Amino acid sequence: MKLLSKVAAVGALTLIAACSNNDPSALGGGGGAGGSLAPGSPSDPRSPAYFQQTVGDRILFSVDQSTLTPQAQTILQGQADWLLANPDFVANIEGHADEQGTREYNLALGARRANAAREYLISRGVAGNRLTTVSYGKERPIEICSTEECYSKNRRAVTVLTGSTLG
Amino acid sequence: MMKLLTSLLVGLTLLSTSAYAQSGPLRLEIDEGIIEPMPFAVPSFVPDGPAAAQYAQDISRVIVSDLTGTGLFREISSDAFISRVSSFDAPVQFADWKAINAQALVTGAVNVSGKRLTVRFRVWDVFSGQELGNGLQFAGTTDGWRRMAHKVADQVYSRITGEGAYFDSRVAFVSESGPKDQRRKRLAIMDYDGANVQYLTDSAAIVLAPRFSPTGDRLLYTSYETGQPRIYVLDIGRVKRQELNTQEGTMSFSPRFSPDGRSIVYSLTQGGNTDLWKMDLASGQSVRLTNTPAIETAPSYAPDGSQIVFESDRSGTPQLYIMPANGGEATRISFGQGRYGTPVWSPRGDLIAFTKQNKGRFHIGVMRTDGSEERLLTASFLDEGPTWSPNGRVIMFTRETQGASGRSTLYSVDISGRNLRPVRTPDGGSDPSWGPLQN
Amino acid sequence: METGTKISAIAHVGLIGWALFGGTFRSEPLPMAVQDVSVISAEQFATMTAQREAPEVPTDPVELQQPVEPDEIDTPEPTSEDPPEPEPVAQPEPEPEPEVEPETVEISPEPELIEQPPTLEEPEPEMAALPTPPGPEAEPSPADKIAPEQIAPPPPEAKPDDIETPPVSLDEGAETQQEQQDQTAPEEAAPEIVTEAEEVVDPAPRTSPRPRVRPNRPAPTPEPEVAETPEPAPTEPAQNEQAINDALAEALGNGTEPSGPPLTSGEKDAMRVAVSRCWNVGSLSTDALETVVVVGFSLSRDGKVVGGSLQLLDSTGGSAASAKQAYEAARRAILRCGAKGYDLPADKYDQWQDIEITFNPERMRIK
Does A142 touch chain B (CB under 8 A)? Predict the structure, then answer.
C-alpha cells in the first residue's frame, strides 16, 4: 500500500509538473514581476485572463479589410507564443464586422478575418488542429454607437481560449 | 386676264397643296399626367345574420386596408356615402357614387353558418356604370376570414389595376428584441400585412435570413444553434426543422431554393474563403458553383431557374454578377458608384432588387437584369435585404436606425418608389422573405 | 397668247393636275382598321373574366347587358338578400367532408349572360394547417378551404334611368377633394357612355376626313404646310387669300365650314393640358405604364366628345391587356375633362373636330 500511494503521489506530482509550465519564454511583454503568481489571476501568465488582458485576445481591422496590420501581427505573435507555451489550450477565433455592410457579406468578411488570424498563428508554429474559426458577421458588436470609434472596435478577430486538454 | 389666270393658277395651286396636305385630325401627344390614388368605396359587406355581422365588418375593413396600403387607392369613408347598401342584389345607384367621386365600388355579403363562412362580392366601375368582371364567392371556415378578405381584395386590385395579386401571402422574417449588442432573434412568419404572427424558433440561437420555398411550405434559414452558422430547412406546417448536411469545419449560410424547389444554392466557407455551392435536396449531394478567392454570397435564382445572380467582391468591392445556374462564367451587372449586395430576382423576371451602399448611405434599388436602368427607391442610414411581393410590384426590406438605441423595422415600398411605409411587427423585424400567393 | 405663256400654262395645269390627282392616290389611309383592337369575342371575354389573376376590364359591354328600354326598370326585390340566381349554385355547394378538395361550380348562364359558364381553374389543395408555435398547444387549426364560385351578374340596371335621375348636386358631395375638375358633372358622362357602347358594335368607319384647307400662314407668304410633297409654285400674297379660301371651300364642297386661321400652339397646348389634367396613371399596372396608346375621338361644336367616336387607334409596347388598361385611363381622361366641353375656338372647329392623342407614359413611370 505504501508503495502504491507513493507511486500515486509521484505520479500526481509528475502530472502536475507536466501541467505547469516552467518555460520562461511564456513570460511575454510586461513581466509578472508582481510575485503573486496566484493561478488563474491575470498576473498568472498561464491563465486565460492573462492571455486576454496582457497578451491581448483581439486584433482590429480596417474597413472592409482582412489584412493584418503590424499591430495585429504583434499581438498575434504574442498569442502564438502563449499558445505554444500553454499547449493544453485550444482556441476558437471569432471574426466580426461592423454594421456598415449587408448581413451575409459581413458573415463572409468575419470569416476572412478569423481565418487571417488563424493562418498567422499557424505560421508562427501553433498547430492547426488547435485552432477553429467562426464568424459572427455583424451580429455581435461590442460597441453599439454608430460612429467610427465604435465601428473600429467591432471590426475584430477575437481568440477565445477553450478547454484545457491534456496531451 | 392675266390677273384672272394668275388667280386661277394660285387657286389651283392652293387646292392641290391642300389636297396634299390632307389634314387628318388634330394630333397631340401627352406625356405627362397626374398620379393619384383612385378613390374607391367599400360599403360594409352585408351580413346575413347576427353571427356574420362582425365578420362582415372586419372583412370589409381588411379589404379597405389592403387596397389603401398599396398607395394606389384612396378610401372614401362611409360618412360620405349617399346610398346605403343594405342588400347585395339591389341595383347600384351609380349617381350616388359618382356624386361622392368614387371611381370604384365594391359591394359584398357575408354568410356564416356554424364554422362555415361565405363571402360574395362584386366590383363596379362607377364611371361607366358597369360591373367590372363577374361576381365571385369564396367559401371557407370562419378562422380563415382574413384570407378570404385578402382574396376579395386581390380580385378588386387585379381587375382595376391589371397587376397580379399579392395580398393573400405570408412573410417570413426574423423577430428581434433587446439591445444591439445582445440581440435576441427568432424566426417568425406572418400575413403580409402583419397579422397572425407566429414564432417558429426560440431565441436561444441567432437565426438569419429565412427564405420561402416556391410553394410556401418550407423555409430555409441559417442558425448558430450548433455554434457555427449552418443551414436548416423547416417544414412550416409541422414546424419541424432539419439541418442540411454540409461539410464539417465549415460555415454554411445564405441558402435559397431553386424555382422547382428541389435544390438549394448556398454559401460555404472553407479556410476563410466563401463560395457558392448547390445541393440537391433529395440526395443531399452538393456541387461547387464558384471557385475564387473572393467572397461569393447572397445568391438568387431567376424565376425560370436558368441563372443565378449573386454578390461577389472579386473586383475588389462587392458587386452583382449573373452566371448560369450550374456555374460557369459570371457577368458583372452592377456598375454604379458604391457597393452592391443582396440581389433578388423579381418573380416577374424583369428586374433585380439589391442593396447599395454609397457615401455612407444605404439604398434599396432595382435594375434590369442586364444592369441597365438602375433606380434607387430608398435612402437611409441602413436599408438592406429586399424581397419581392408575389406580383413583382412591391418590395419589403429591413431598415435599421443608427446609434445605441437603433432598432430594425420592416418596410415596404412600391416599385415606383412611392408609398414607403413600415410593416408593423410585435418587436423589431429584419430579413423579410415574401412567400408566394396562397391557394 | 404667246407660245411661252401657253406652254407655261399647260405645264402648270399639268403639274397642278398631277398634284391634285396624284395626291389623291397617295392620301393617308383612313384610320379604320384599328377597330379590331377594341373588340373582343365573347369567348375571349369569358376566358378573361374566368381567370383570377389580372383579369381585364371589359370594354365590350354588349355582352353584359341587353339594350334596356327606359321604362323597363328591372330591379329585383331589394329586400331579398338571397337572390334567386345563386340558388342553382347551391346544388354543388356542399363540399366533400374533408374540406380538402377544391370546389368547382358551374353556373347555368343567365339569359342575358352571353359568356359561357366559366370553368374555374382548380384551386390547389387548400393550404396546410397553420403552424402552431412550438409549445404546449398541439391542436392544429382547421384547414381553410377557399374556393371561388361564380355568381350570376345582377340584372341589368336601367341605365337610362340612372342617367335621367336628376343628378345630385355634386360639388357639395361629401367628398372633400375634387382633384379632377370635372367630377362635378357625371350626369353628362353617362350619355356618352351609353352611346359609347354602341360604338363598339358599330362597324361603320369613322367619317372620312374631308380634305381640309391648311393655309397655315396667315400672312404674306402662304406656304402650304407639310403634308407630303413639295409644294408647287409659291402663292400670292395675303390679299388674295380670303377669296381663294372661299374658292377652295367651294371647290371642296364644304361651303359652310369655316376653318379660320390655323390653331395656335397655345391653343393646342391648352387642349393638351386640359386632357392631361385628367389623365391619372396612378392605378395603372407597371405593364400599362410601358404601353403607348393612340386614342381618337371627335368633338361637337361645343367641344364635347361625340358619343361613339372615342376609340383606340394604336398601341405600342406592353400586352393586349395592358393596352386595354392604358386605353381605359386615356378614355377616362378625355371624357372626364371634356364633360363640360373643351374650350377650343369655334371658328377653327374644322381643325379640331377630329383629334388623335398619343398617351405616352414613359415619363410617368418612375419617381
Answer: yes
